Amino acid sequence: MMAAYDHKKIEEKWQRQWDEEGVYITTEKDTRPKRYILDMFPYPSGDGLHVGHPKGYIATDIYSRYQRMQGCNVLHPMGWDAFGLPAENYAIKNKVHPRQAVEKNIARYKSQLKKIGLDYDWEREINTTDPAYYKWTQWIFLQLFKKGLAYESSEPINWCPSCKTGLANEDVQDGRCERCDTFVEKKPLRQWVLRITQYAERLLTDIDELAEWPEHIKELQRNWIGKSDGAEISFCIAGHNEKIQIFTTRPDTLFGATYMVLAPEHPLVEKLQSDITNWNEVDAYRHEAEHKGEIERTAVGKEKTGVRLDGVMAVNPANNEDIPIFIADYVLGYYGTGAIMAVPAHDERDLQFAKKYNLPIRQVVIPNKEQFEGAWALIETPRGTFLFQKRDGNAKKDPSKIVPFGGMRDEGEDITFCLIRELKEELCAEFSKEQIRFLIASDSMNDGEDIKNNFLALFYLSDVSPTHVRLGDEGEAIMEMTLEDALAHPDVTEPTKNIIRYFLGEKTMVKAYTGEGDIINSGVFDGMTSTNAKDAITEFVGGKMMAQYKLRDWVFSRQRYWGEPIPLIHCEACGVVAVPEKDLPVTLPIVERYEPTGTGESPLADIEEWVNTTCPECCGPAKRETNTMPQWAGSSWYYLRYIDPTNSAHFVGEAKERYWMSVDMYVGGAEHATRHLIYARFWHKFLYDNGFVSTNEPFTTLKSPGLIYGADGRKMSKRWGNVVNPDDVVDTYGADTLRLYEMFMGPFADAAAWNTESIIGPRRFLERVWRLLGALGEYTDPALESLLHKTIEKVSEDIRNFRFNTAISAMMIFVNEAEKKGTVGREAYAVFVRLLAPFAPHITEEIWRGVLGNAESVHRAHWPKYDAGKIVSGAHIITVQVNGKVRDVFEIDKDISEDDARRIALAREKIKKWTDGKDIKKIVYIKNKLVNIVTG
RNA sequence: GGGGCAGUGGCGGAACCAGGUAUACGCGCACGACUUAAAAUCGUGUCCCGAAAGGGAUGUGGGUUCGAUUCCCACCUGCCCCACCA
């Protein structure tokens, strides 16, 4: 009788043994193909791991064990990202030094990971807070500094009043600090900033190289970089030397720019102060905008506000018109040039603003012939009245309507032709193009029917009195009214009233036309397509086509203690000087008080003996830079350090870098898509450009695990009391069961809720595997043998594609089948054990060495090869359909001819029932699979 | 407002990439065996209607096809990301 499956005993025993034997130690002295398999390393927070965290680690563990058994030299390391706000805030809250807190948390994390039986090579463990590590983080910073990619700036930046530090754009989510959820403020602060925008274009275009990245992550990065193609154009200020630079994606609408808007913080406002006659009002608005929170200022749907700069006018370079200048907070200081040309006819925001401040709206793009559906005209008489048509209704359902003249476009017509034709039909009067005073596109005529892209025109009836026009042939009557009377008239339709309101200047219902089309009201450019006009008009006014990016430069300073000191020295005589490489690392001083000061200075600024130093260039007195680096610094290059973790002369040895890079498989959360993964790509490209690394991109394949939610479907959090600790699961069910369950929950990339009931399934499976030991014999049933080979193929393929759930399912099917047979050969069983080994490393090791008596670890064994010859058994099940519906199946022993298959199918009793008395039109045959009989 | 992804039993999901017996595998549930009893384990059953024959079902509606969960179009619903980005 077999002893019962005792997971505790087995798991502890083999974890100890693996450590002693160094089963997972990686070396480079090797001719095997390499596989660099990497997990995003964790921040060791005080809460420890919950069962969601190891999901990705288990996946890479399975993957790396598989690759190792396949004969690859595998690097699968782990380390700690321990600088930054989470660790420091935890330390402050628990009143311990961050260093101690970090050490304690790391020990906890490490023991949790070890319990799960992960195959990390712990000899390569790294820790971003280790001076031997951050020496090289500082070194890379200095390379950036020397190449001009790090600069000092005092621009207002995002400031978290609770964490008391500046933040990068990426650290702000929905206007709140990503760490503590406090609303961020704008605060001018001396900062070190990395010029990541210099790499924006390459970071964007090289995304296309990343064939093995998930599409949604790539899309997130593209959106974050946010490229817009457009033009930069300058507008003169009348009677002034100053110019206003604007960026627009629609230079084709320049003739429609009827005013300009500067961001409230635009520096030009200050410069124009002496010309602005309402300075008090302007200044008040600026102050108000400054103190509004980001959220308040950028809230969608908020009514637009602004103040006109009285006394100054800009000049539209296209038509030399003087146009007013406003400041308004709907223009953001930090995007583009902080100033816009406003084209209310073609931009929804400008339109809202124009309506509110009663600014002219000029249509300069109209949908082209293919795009518009109908055209409508208001016709003004010399008496100031307007003509409408009255359609008599005859029932409740069809009441009388008063509408403008006009109608639907005929195929191929242009707008003016369509209008003139409609007017001729309905009014029996000839109109000419010259009588059109105003033409605009709108959806306002939509009267319940779906008519898109209508045109509204205002005609002036100069020499034809209404008595000269007569009724059209559809029985309409002509109504002559003032627009005010029409608005009050009950029979005038609501869309018609909207048009009237628009012409009366109320401008309530018209939507901006933001599409492309043909140019009008733009002088020599009339008739050009808007697409072609972009370049032409830009050139005409001396602007230049260029791109803008949403990506901002990376604010790289934190006014906090727990980070890498920025290795720079401020000398009065020499300016900012780099710390010489031989003096790296600049270590964090041990201090009593490390709480943030809130003054905009780092706590390091108070430590005189650390701050005061000598200038490396002139040897005069100097002060150290006291800002520290953000949390993201250490993680921007850590994957390189694992390759050569103890090298004291270089951040990574050249030959080793060439051997291991790039990372073949990188697994980690999608929440890092727009931060870590962009920062790391940026640093890597910089290192590549300067010859320090050999690849253009760091990570070949990327996979993101779906979240594991609590049993209640909510995110696992102390707040909800739904956290499951992996230690408890390991105690109760064992690490092997935990691993199998997490992989069996569903597709790797999908989110799933933890289910305390379902975990028993994988446990039962392992017990069945264990019990099968009692059924070992010398004979393996041929059908089982065939199934085994199918299982080898399936499991191999599924691991390669991260489809662990179906791999486990295939192994379950094999075990179920073996149990049914009652016996399984030792050899076949040993093959199966190797398939299971990456998933359940402990139980399989116990069986492999302890029971089957192998000397070497199963994790160093060869992956089984499947024999295609054994999979093809010769038997096939043929499905018989009649008209696509399954009516019967039959089995054949070996390949048969198409004719035979048809004959057998037609002869089946069940099939005859469906085909009797019917014409057989056609028979579709798919070899060894299906016969489909199509009857008349 | 823009973009991405997804809708299949009581539940997690499989088949979708490459159209060909929809619901594999697991959980749960029901019944049975073992047991004084329970737990564990084992066995049988488990999409819906129907006695059966058969019919219906993969969010909804269309299309392509001999045949659609799979491909195409529109819509509905849910989740995620971005968002006054000029």
Give a quick rundown of the structure.
With 936 residues, the chain is an alpha+beta fold.
Description:
The chain has 936 residues and is of the alpha+beta class. Helix content is 32%, strand content 20%. The protein contains 29 helices and 42 strands. Strands 12, 13, 14, 15, 16, 17 and 27 form a seven-stranded mixed sheet that branches. Strands 19, 20, 21, 22, 23, 24 and 25 form a seven-stranded mixed sheet that branches. Helix 21 (735-744) packs across helix 22 and helix 23 runs antiparallel to helix 24 (804-821). The two termini are 65 Å apart. The structure holds one RNA strand of 86 nucleotides.
Essential attributes:
936 residues; alpha+beta; 7-stranded mixed beta sheet; 32% helix; flat; RNA-binding
Structural class estimated from helices and strands: alpha+beta
Helical content (DSSP H or I, runs of 4+) = 25-40%
* Count of DSSP-assigned helices: 29
Cα gyration radius (Å):
37 Å
N- to C-terminal distance: 65 Å
Beta strand count:
42
Strand content: 15-25%
Shape: flat
User: Could you name the ranges where pLDDT drops below 50 across 5 or more consecutive residues?
Assistant: 446-451
Which helices and strands, and how do they pair?
Elements: H1 7-21, E1 34-39, H2 54-69, E2 73-75, E3 79-80, H3 85-93, H4 98-115, E4 126-127, H5 131-146, E5 150-153, E6 156-160, E7 165-167, E8 172-173, E9 176-177, E10 185-188, E11 191-194, H6 200-205, H7 215-225, E12 227-237, E13 243-248, E14 259-262, H8 267-271, H9 279-291, H10 294-298, E15 307-315, E16 322-327, E17 339-342, H11 348-357, E18 365-366, E19 374-380, E20 386-391, E21 401-403, E22 405-408, H12 415-427, E23 436-442, E24 454-460, E25 477-481, H13 483-488, H14 494-503, E26 518-519, H15 530-540, E27 544-549, E28 554-555, E29 568-571, E30 575-578, H16 608-611, E31 612-614, E32 621-624, H17 638-641, H18 654-660, E33 663-667, H19 676-689, E34 699-703, E35 708-709, H20 726-733, H21 735-744, E36 752-753, H22 760-771, E37 776-777, H23 782-800, H24 804-821, E38 824-825, H25 826-836, H26 841-851, H27 868-871, E39 876-882, E40 885-892, H28 898-907, H29 909-915, E41 920-926, E42 930-935
Parallel strand pairs: 1-2, 1-33, 3-4, 14-16, 19-24, 33-34, 35-36, 37-38, 39-42
Antiparallel strand pairs: 5-11, 6-7, 6-10, 8-9, 11-28, 12-13, 12-15, 12-27, 14-17, 15-16, 18-26, 19-20, 19-22, 20-21, 20-25, 23-24, 29-30, 29-32, 31-32, 39-40, 41-42
Helix pairs in contact: 1-26, 3-4, 20-21, 21-22, 23-24, 23-25, 25-26
The chain binds one RNA strand of 86 nucleotides through helix 7, strand 13, strand 17, helix 11 and strand 36.
